[in-house]
Predict the 3D structure of the following.
Amino acid sequence: LGGQKPYCCAVCGNKFSRLWNLKLHRRIHTQEKPHRCSMCEKSFTRADILKVHQRTHTGERPYRCTACSLSFKRLDHLKTHQRKHTTHILHFYCCSQCERALSDRLVIHFLRCGQCGKCFSHPSNLKAHLHIHTGERPFCCSLCGRTFTKHSNLKAHRRVHTGERPYCCQACGKRFTQKCNLKRHQRIHLDV
């Protein structure tokens, strides 16, 4: 369309080059989230976002680096990682534990979950992950009794009770309780 944006949101005035992008954008105003995760309570505006989210439950990491065999949940994370291999191609280090030649630095040897194979760089992250398999939810909200597998999730949940919205969109001033919600919102300003 040569830079034209003929589709205009009647609520906020944002313009889009494609009708489909306008339809997705409208869900921000309607709060419509038709794509629900079958493993938890979360819902999403788009099916592709749900698919990426579900990998937090399954541990699936479908994007593998051909240079070092590390795997990633998202393609953009793989691409960011792969830049490390191309920018320092002349510098090689050899790991004494696995004898792998590395282009930029010695990698951390990851701790692997014995149940699903997911890898972690810190023991505390592995411990928190194991709650998914055991069903244990040791962090409890003192106000409503809701329980969580991670302390960080409880901390974010408390904002429901306090009304705190620490994450602010620099483009429009809208505030959010969670950083992930701010990042999702910011896409409307990019017309992606």
About this structure: Residues 63 and 75 are 6 Å apart (CA to CA). The chain is about 40% helix and 15% strand. The mean pLDDT is 81.
